[in-house]
Amino acid sequence: MAGIQYTLNRLVLMIPTFLLVMIIIFLLVRLLPGDPAIAIAGDKASDADIAAIREKLGLNAPLWTQFWFFLTNTLQGDLGRSILLRAPVLDVILARLPTTIFLAVYAVSLSILIAGPLAFLAAVNRGKWQDNLIRAVFQVGLSMPVFYIGLILLTFLAAQLRLFPVGGYGETFLDRMYHLFLPAVTVALYTSAILMRNLRAAIIEVLDAEYVQFARAKGLPSRLILGRHVLKNALISTVTLLGLSIGQLMSGTLVTETVFAVPGVGRLMLEAIFARDYPLIQGLTLTFAVLVSSVFLMTDLFQSWLDPRMRLS
Amino acid sequence: MKAAALAVGLALSTALGSFTIGSADAVERGGTLNFARYDGSKLVDPIYADRNPDIWMVGSLFSTLLEPTADGTDLVGSLAESYEVSADGKTVSLVLRDGVKFSDGSPVTGEDVVFSLDRARNPDLGPWAGLLAAISSVSADGGNITISLENPDPALLSMLATFNTAIVSKKAFEAAPGATDQEKSAALFAKGGPGLGSGPFYLSGFEQGASMSFAANPHYWKQGEDGKPLPYIEGVNFQIIPDDATRVLKLTAGEVDIAEFIPFSRVAELDADPSINMNLFPSTRIIYSPINTREKRADGSPNPLADERVRQAINYATNKEALIGLVLQGAGKPMSSPVMSSATRLAVDMSPLYGYDLEKAKALVAEAGLEPGTEVTLTTLAGSADDATIFAALQQMWQPIGINLVAEQVDGATRGSKNRSGEFDIHTYGWVDDVNDPSQVTGWLGYYPTRKAVGTGWNNADFNALYEASSTEMDPEKRADQYKQMQEIYAEAAPLLFMYETPFAVAVSGKVDGYLQTPLGNNVFENVSLER
After folding, report:
1. Which of A107, A309, B301, B421 is deepest in the core (most CB within 10 A)?
2. Which of residues 38-57 of A touch B (CB under 8 A)?
């Protein structure tokens, strides 16, 4: 019962979050220097053409009127038409979103697969050569920009060794796994470095906790101690970090999708910003906000399962 | 223009072939070309194409009545086998070629031509209608087309060889779903398939922002070297790869056959690769910097660049060859005409146009009384490595003449806004001709009523009068003389920092023959063949 109440509370809290996001993105987009009408019509257009476009887009209307239209239309599921792509924003986003979600889930899965076992290995071998080696390697992953890691992987694994395609995203599920492997690894290397460090520290902390010492003293088998007591408790802070990393990962798709020629919403966002495509920027930001908020919600729910005390607080 | 009867022979129509790269002795047929693009098409419709990635693809899907020769200096027949301009210059008569068909096999008729040209000149539709403003009516009697003009227009024939006058099938267009012309156009592009155009290909697949594919039009009227219809290849697959490094990697990994817009810093490396033909196609692309010539800056302060001598001085103080070496790794040449590229018709070769002469520059600023240390702002594109290099070079080059150059970094949309509002001192810019006539670029750079002479505010009555006279002058010699005078006036006034021309850098796999990018930028695939 407390779990359902907690979930409902979290859902209600998302409403003001979205409203705030809508206000901020609406204002931020309009604070950007540069006239969208010029971006749409191009440098070669006449002043009359520019004026006509401004009128057509409703850019001459007062700001609050523009916001009211944006708000009411959005609530009715109408995100407007993309100026750049001449198509409904929702359709454009829905066409590109699965690719980005696929990439994000792929990257997160790889991050967990990489970070989990290595953090465990490093923690149980604290201070030994295995621990030092793992930490040193991940330090490199943390200190290099994502696009640089991507280009290195592309050059060696794709262009020279021809193990993977240089870009694209494939047709079937397996084909996509193959095509998106390098971009997913690129993102995962960075994320897993953060996760590994955090998880390692958390495991070490839990290993020293009194209840673990007590479990050992009781003679419980190591597998049970590690699985039931250590891992579950160490995961609490790491799950929070994972949720935050996914938010960061979404913004990282802007770079990754451009370098690897992946046609997802990250690359679309860059195109929309350069073209001052207001409806598309607004729609995409809202989409990112929904995705990230959903991830945070899931993170909270998962955490409350790991640590039921959170529901009560 | 005297009564001009310019019959165009069928033989000329294959002139393109002589300018393309490579020439296969025995051309192989078949195969699909994989092409890595820097940006994707959004809508390839003759009248709505307004971005280069759209404009440059129109010719592959749609044919025009006339077409430019590969070097861009002349016109030849395409769907029209002949054309004639009346003595008073107010009527253009064309005869459609026998047997020309759309890609679904239906015939191209006079009715399609009337529909397409009426659509193209409708100011409520596409942005290019102004280029056809002289037309008062278009009519057809079978395959005989008559275009009546309000006034003579020496650029009209060039317009009939331009993407926006390409012929679309009236029947296919009207049958498309949608209430408006725009909706029908978008629906047709989204659906693809044969029947809309009569170009060498038809659109066979499109995924917004990711890929696009063309399939060969089996009914295309041009013949290949083997006496069979062009194109030689079965189709073209386009992949959109915005990142320069990834595009190059795609080519070197053998995943694509052609990669366009190669960064100039990579040209030498790819040129050394024996499996790649590194092409630098001549273009009408010029890189220049508009100078604010208004007496006052936008903030009301005096504008040192309003003095013609100061503008001349910065032109003399700019070592263009050095800039070309730094930015283009030598793959370019200084502008030789002040208002157009050397590949544009009626360009006058005035080279060296403000050749590097520091002493002359110093004398000019001294004469103008320019205060040493005068601050001038160069507005550049944020994130552009080229602009950053240009700024660093100009800062050093202009320091000896007393100019303290500072940079202001903005994005493209902001730069466009500043250009229109005059809120700049000098900023980087570029241009590629869209039409095979000098009127467009000259109007853009110099004719004040068009766009305040590319935002510089330069307003010269003699230049404006010459431009207006040239727009109805049908005598080629008189028109050429008017353009010569305009170029001389413009060079003297120097409302621009005249910089350089750049080629189109396209890396092509050694197994590809016959690819061409025209000086206007159009991608021509109809003569491409693949070694298999």
Report:
1. A107
2. 38-39, 41-47, 49-50
Distance CA B281, CA B70 (A): 11
- Asked if A161 has any chain B CB less than 8 Å from its own CB, the reply is no
Token pair 């592309």: residue: A154
Predicted pLDDT of residue B10: 32
Q: Pick from B220, B430, B423: which is nearest to B341 by CA?
A: B430
Whether A177 and A106 have beta carbons less than 8 Å apart is answered as yes
Other C-beta atoms within 10 Å of B142: how many?
Answer: 10
Tell me how crowded residue A251 is: count the other CB atoms within 10 A of its CB. Answer: 12
How far apart are alpha carbons B382 and B391 in whole angstroms?
12
The model's pTM is 0.83
Task: Please determine, for residue B20, whether its predicted confidence score (pLDDT) is greater than 80.
Answer: no
Contact at CB, B417 and A50, closer than 8 angstroms: no
Q: Please indicate whether, in this complex, the C-beta atoms of B255 and A49 are within 8 angstroms of each other.
A: no
**Distance (Å, rounded) from C-alpha B492 to C-alpha B311?**
10
How far apart CA B300 and CA B319 sit, in angstroms, is 31
Subunit contact B451:A47, Cβ cutoff 8 A: yes
Residues of chain A neighbouring B162 (CB-CB closer than 8 A): none
Contact B344, B284 (CB under 8 A): yes
ipTM of the complex: 0.73
Q: Would the pLDDT of B3 be above 60? A: no
CA distance A39 to chain B (A): 5
Give residue-wise pLDDT tens across range B143-185. 999 999 999 999 999 999 999 999 999 999 999 999 999 999 9
| Residue A133 neighbours by CB distance under 10 Å | 14
Six-digit token string for B288: 């220049």
